Amino acid sequence: MLEFEKLLDESVKVHGHLCAGQVLGVRMSMLGLREIGIADSRGADRKNLIVFVEIDRCATDAIQSVTGCSLGKRTMKFADYGKMAASFLNLKTGRAVRVLAIEESRQKAREYFPEIENRYEAQLNAYKIMPENELFEISEVSIKIRPEDMPGRPIGRVTCAMCGEYVQDSREVKREGLDLCRACSGGGYYDTPFFSPSVMQKMHNGFGVKSKLWIESDGGPFFGKGKMLLLKAIDKHGSISHAAKEVNISYRKAWSYIKAMEERFGVSLVECKAGGKNGGGASLTPEIRDFLARYDRIEKEVRGIADERFREIFGL
Fold first, then answer.
1. DSSP secondary structure string, 36-83?
2. Bridge partners, 51 (sequence order)
3. Which ranges of the chain would DSSP assign to H, the alpha helix?
4. Which residues of 9-34 are buried (b: 16+ CB within 10 A; e: fewer)?
5. CATH number belonging to the domain at 156-192, selected among 3.40.50, 3.30.60, 3.30.70, 3.40.1800
6. Residue range(s) occupied by CATH 3.30.1330.130 in the chain
7. DSSP character for 285?
8. For the chain, how far is it from start to end, CA to CA, in angstroms?
9. Where in the chain are all domains bearing CATH 3.30.60?
10. Rounded to the nearest 5°, which phi and psi values hold at 281?
């Protein structure tokens, strides 16, 4: 009971107020951890635990507080089932249990404190003392964690062929040989406004059209805006490291892009000068300068055609 009260106090500080959901979450966590053999979830056992929560309600904050698991650490996973339930997995042993709050416990709580008129207050007090078998249904389950869902550094990072944004940990969607983010593949929770002055060429009435151009090779995206910006940044700074910082990628990633492009082009793209008295540097080869000039030309022409057709079709 002393341990429970301490954990509840800590949970309330995290959540901001005391409620029945906090009590349920704390007791649910204590039960789940005990069943899978985790004694010190925020200390010695912190790398051996993953928790799946099935609802985004008060109890989830309590589970995070007690277990130390969180989305940011990739040790808490959110399965949006809308159920007052959570599963606890011991990565070391593979044992996992799912703890479900029993719906009938709501009414049962009134029997413990019939003198309390407010049913939420009655539940809060009853949940503190009710036996576990009246509050929860527990079942042993099997949970397999994919490598890309494990804690640790990202195992992969690709660029969406549509929006150019980066996607980590195999969350991309393959469509007709292209890597797309879930938003661009039609599964996004947000919509990008079609008429957006911040990204479109302004017209007299504020409307415009945005076009995007990339070059494909063997059915996949090969060269687009991101790589163009990297090469132009190298030309601007005379340095690959400075260019990488400007486009917000690592030096290693910048070099991987350059090498991949050189393999496809069949020519060198960057000439590097070793450091010395006057320092080293990098510059674009004549071949890639010519390519960039051609790419700029076709991009402007495509944008011009799109703008013209937009005005014709929309009557602007």
1. HT-S-TTTTTGGGEEEEE---SHHHHHHHHHH---TTTT-EEE-----
2. 76, 88
3. 2-15, 20-36, 58-67, 105-112, 119-129, 132-135, 225-237, 240-246, 251-265, 286-314
4. eebbeebeeebbbbbbbbbbbbbbbe
5. 3.30.60
6. 2-149
7. -
8. 72
9. 156-192
10. 180, 180
The type of residue at 54 is: E
CATH T-level fold of 196-314: Arc Repressor Mutant, subunit A (1.10.10)
- CA-closest candidate to residue 256, choices 279, 236, 226, 296: 226
Q: What percent of the chain has pLDDT over 90?
A: 53
- Pair 102, 139: CB distance under 8 Å: no
Specify whether the CB–CB gap between 135 and 164 falls below 8 A. Answer: no
pLDDT for position 206: 57
CATH number for the region 2-149 comes to 3.30.1330.130
**167 burial level (CB within 10 Å; 0-12, 13-18, 19+):** buried
Q: Name the pTM for this structure.
A: 0.62
Q: Which of 52-61, 148-157, 166-175, 281-290 has the highest mean pLDDT?
A: 52-61
**Residues of CATH 1.10.10.10 domain(s) within the chain?**
196-314
Task: Indicate the length of the chain as a whole number.
Answer: 316
Question: How far is C-alpha 174 from the chain's CA centre?
Answer: 18
pLDDT bin (cut points 50, 70, 90) of residue 174 is: confident
Q: Which two tokens stand for residue 131?
A: 């036996």
145/62 Cα distance (integer angstroms)? 23
